[in-house]
Amino acid sequence: MPVTNQQVSGHMFLRQMYADSYFPDHVVDRGRAILLRLCERIEAQQPSDLEALYALSQAATEEFNSLEAEFEAAGSEIETVAREVIAEDFWFVASAYGFTDADVEELIATRDW
C-alpha cells in the first residue's frame, strides 16, 4: 500500500546516512523501508492516541534492532550519528501524522542501539 501522506512521500528518509559512505546504502535502504512500513501501518491502523502510535513505532524500532548485525557485517554500525538521524525520522513520522507531542525517546523506547 503506497503512503498517501504528502509530507511523508516527499521526505528523504535517513538522508544523512545516505550522504555518509560509512553507512552502506543497501543497509540504509532497509532502514528506509522500515520507516515507510511504519507510515503504511499508521495510515492503515490510524492510531487514535500516543499509546497506539508508540506500539507501532516501537515495533518498527525492533526491526531497526535487527539491522545492527547487517550494518556490522558491512563494516558499519548504528552509532551516534545514525542514532540521531533515525530518531529524528521517527519523530518526523509522528509529527507528519499529527502526533506533534510524541516523545522521541518513547517512540524508540525498544531500541538497543
TrEMBL record:
Pfam family membership, one: DUF5713
Highest taxon of the lineage: Bacteria
Name the record gives this protein: DUF5713 family protein
Taxonomic source organism: Streptomyces prasinosporus
Organism classification: Bacteria, Bacillati, Actinomycetota, Actinomycetes, Kitasatosporales
